[in-house]
Design the sequence.
């Protein structure tokens, strides 16, 4: 599955990620940058502009991230 290659990639939060709240991140993949829905790995708030690491993929377009 191509999206599994997202694990370990870094991206940037474009829509605040919060506890129990879905946000948005932009992640470089497949020669471009794509938007994904995102949850926080440790249930903390991650503000827009923060660099994050993808630690899990929830198909089809959701990732779990942690700040870098």
Sequence:
């Amino acid at each position: 599955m191509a999206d599994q290659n997202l694990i370990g990639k870094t991206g940037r939060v474009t829509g605040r990620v919060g506890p129990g709240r879905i946000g948005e991140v932009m992640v470089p993949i497949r020669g471009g940058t794509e938007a994904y829905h995102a949850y926080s790995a440790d249930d903390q708030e991650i503000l827009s502009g923060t660099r994050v690491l993808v630690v899990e993929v929830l198909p089809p377009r959701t990732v779990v991230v942690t700040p870098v």
Notes: The beta strands are 10-15, 23-29, 32-40, 51-58, 62-67. The first strand starts at residue 10 and ends at 15. The chain has a mean pLDDT of 93. The two ends are 25 Å apart (CA to CA).
